[in-house]
């Protein structure tokens, strides 16, 4: 009898502790450097019984609207959701963008009377399952008031809110003389830049042949496994204004069908653009050095 009561108590306890997350959730989703954009609005519509199903809706102004169905499960406070290529219900993006089929790993929590789902996502390209999307982070609240409360506490943009502290920290000194991933960094050019927020665009300037590169800033990954094609890939990043020189490395993940790995890089510094031809292989990685001089310094020197 005692054993039966113990089982019954355990079942009731599990029922009390199991959180039902059905309903609408509002929030933000980010994508790391190298993605199409750093921040989107996000909405989940969830139904939960034994499992979870519903759809995600990500949008950015009037230019991006992506709605995809998903299914998943809840394990304790952890929610795992998987979008399906077969459940794309809306796919409106600029011509050179491709939607990601995402999987989410989120944690349910309560704070200050509000309910949140917070965690990470990764995924693959809708057009090519071998093309890995640059991942990011997610914050969702069951109410708009809860979302605004979360954002107000951060005193910064949602992009920085959802970036870990370690990602924001930058080294105070960097050694550019050593080898890198068993290759020799070969200096291609040095460019003087005046902004801390920069962008690069990568194209294949010859016949596309499945060249794949990864981009590193000061020996830390910016964008992994970019497949070079005629369609530009945009990588957005920030440099640390405490450092005068920064190293941008393009590392050849493969050599394509026709070695070496070739691409055209356009560096965007505010209104100024620089075009650089890149060649790399398994012995040498292309290195571009960015020398930071703030606009104020430039003006003083020109007087």
Description:
This protein has helices spanning 2-17, 144-154, 158-161, 165-168, 295-302; strands at residues 23-30, 39-48, 52-60, 64-75, 78-92, 100-111, 114-125, 136-141, 184-193, 197-203, 212-217, 220-227, 233-238, 245-252, 261-269, 272-280, 284-292. By secondary structure, the chain is mainly β. It has two domains: 19-168, Lipocalin (Beta Barrel); 184-295, Immunoglobulin-like, CATH 2.60.40. The chain has an eight-stranded antiparallel beta barrel with strand order 1-2-3-4-5-6-7-8. The longest helix is centred in the N-terminal third of the chain and has 16 residues, at 2-17. The model is unreliable at 2-17, 155-172 and 297-303 (pLDDT under 50).
Oligomer: single chain
Strand order within the widest sheet?
A: 1-2-3-4-5-6-7-8
Nearest-integer average pLDDT = 80
Count the domains.
2
Q: What is the element string, with H for helices and E for strands?
A: HEEEEEEEEHHHEEEEEEEEEH
What is the top-level CATH class of the largest domain?
Answer: Mainly Beta
Instruction: Please report the distance between the alpha carbons of the first and last residues.
Output: 93 Å
CATH topology of the largest domain: Lipocalin
Q: How many distinct beta strands?
A: 17
Summarize the biggest pleated sheet: 8 strands, antiparallel, barrel
Low-confidence spans: 2-17, 155-172, 297-303
Helix fraction, binned, reads 10-25%
The Cα radius of gyration reads: 23 Å
- In percent terms, what proportion of residues is strand? over 45%
Q: What is the architecture of the largest domain at the second tier of CATH?
A: Beta Barrel
